[in-house]
Please model this.
Amino acid sequence: MGFLKGQGATQSSSLRYSTYCPLVGQGATEYLVLLAIVLIVALVSVALLGFFPGMASDAQVTQSQMYWRSTNPISIVESVARAEASSGQTYPYIRLRNTGTYPIRITGLVGGDGTKITQFSGSNCGAPGGYVNISDYFYLGPGEEKYFAVGGTPWYGVTCDWEIVSRTSGSSGVYIGGASSVCQNSTISPGTLYYKTFGFEYITYIEGQSITKRQMGKDLIIKCREPR
Model:
C-alpha cells in the first residue's frame, strides 16, 4: 500500500507538471503576439498622422471647442477654417463673445509665436477697405458677439468681410502666425488649424477705469473645410 501511495504521488506530481508547464508557455506566447499586434497598430497610427499633416481627432476638436467656449471674458463660440484654393492661405472664421460682466475692447490677437497683431482686413459693415485697427470695431458689451471671417456665401455666409489669415510663420499685419498646422489645399484631407497657444489683448472698462489685459489659452484646434 505504501508503494502504491508513493507511485500515486509521483504520477500526480508528474501530471501536474506536464499539464501546467505547456499552459505557461502558451500564455507567454499569446502575450507576445498581442503585444506585437498593439505595437503594429501604434506604428500604423503614427505613420498615418505623419502622412496626413494637420490631422486631429474629432475628440480633440470637441475638447478644444468646449474649452474655448468656457474661457472668460473672451470666449470662442464658433470656429471653422479653410484654405483658399488659389493661394493656399488659411482663412479662419472665429466668432467671439464677451462672457464677462464688463464691457471690453479687443485690441489685438496673439498667435502661437506670442506676437500680437492689431489689424484685420475689412471691406464692409462700416469698415473701409484695406487694413483696419481691431480696436476700432471690436468693442463688446456683456454677452455681445463679433467675428473674424471672410464674408459672403461662398465662404462662411456671414455679412461682414473682416479677415485675418493664419500661418505657421511669424505674425505681421493681418497674418496671425505661430500655428502648428494650417488647412491643406485638399478636398480629401483638409486637416486642422492648430495653435498650441492663442489669445487676446483687450481693455476692460470697470467703474470708469480702463485696464489693459491679456488672455491666453491653449490648444485652439479648428476643423478645416474643403478649400474654396
